[in-house]
């Protein structure tokens, strides 16, 4: 189809459906903007549009790139936080530390051991301390 005929047909369809005036080139720009906002790499968008240089693509769509960079930073941070919950060398996640609820007026075992001079370690690991029974 000849470019002029395609443009006329597109303009006619826009008018028939009561849409605001828009050019075919605007659709191209919109598609590139949506692709970048969806996380498509700049190199892919450059090839999709047929730009000779990635610099041309980057210069044209710089208004979209900060938002894309922000989303990328958020995804990276989420990935790092998720990786931090993994047990090293496995795909298992660590258990969350149990929150201790101390009862009012009662001392915990740890508090009693510190007060009496006992160690928290297992008796077999207590070197140089007499074992209490």
Description:
By secondary structure, this protein is mainly α. It has a domain of 82 residues. The protein is built from six helices and no strands. Helix 2 runs antiparallel to helix 3 and helix 3 packs across helix 4. The longest helix is centred in the middle third of the chain and has 20 residues. The model has no long low-confidence stretch (mean pLDDT 78).
What string, H for helix and E for strand, traces the elements in order? HHHHHH
Beta strands, count: 0
Q: Level of helix content?
A: 40-55%
Distance from N terminus to C terminus (CA atoms, Å) equals 96 Å
Largest sheet: none
Sum up the structure in keywords.
mainly alpha; rod-shaped; 133 residues; 6 helices; 0% strand
How are the SSEs placed, and which strands pair?
Elements: H1 3-16, H2 24-37, H3 42-49, H4 54-60, H5 65-84, H6 109-116
What is this structure, in a nutshell?
With 133 residues, the chain is mainly alpha-helical. It contains six helices and no strands. The chain has a domain at 3-84.
